[in-house]
Amino acid sequence: MTVASAVGPPVTAVVTATPEARGVVRVRVAVRGPGATEFVDEHVRVAVPVASAWARLGDVLHAESAAPWHAARLGARHPGALVVAAHHGHVCRLRVGPSGTPLVLRTARLLRGARPEVPWPVWASLAHTFLAAGCRYGGWPRCGWGPGRGRWPPRGRVPAAWPGGSSLARR
Description:
Number of domains: 1
Mean pLDDT: 75
Shape: globular
Low-confidence stretches: 4-8, 141-171
Distance between the termini: 29 Å
Largest sheet: 8 strands, mixed
Number of helices: 2
Helix content: 10-25%
Strand content: 25-35%
């Protein structure tokens, strides 16, 4: 998948998902930015309520829901998740980062009512990767859906990991 950048060439991401249990996926995202800058993020993505018992271990939680408050409530119940997504149809509501910054993603106007070509849980995993790489909300590459403007990598560097690391590092 190629993610268009607001500044400079696009960012390319290769997403690999390995099922661990019903509703639980181990995700590896390899991102290549301008100048052959590379970053790899590994995390656990959990579908809620399908795998509710796994939710406390998830780095990324997602649920099918049209309720505008669902992501906020899910994030409040599971504060250890770095990204929480509630998606339905052409809209995905995210809470990102330790502070739960809200972000709403939508498909293009011509596709209203249609789901995105890349499923919403994958976009949630990309949000985790951008955070793990040190990009703040306003510094994410522009993806045609997001308001972010900035550079990849942020400030010319890519940190080794998100502070505290991924849940995969804690196992």
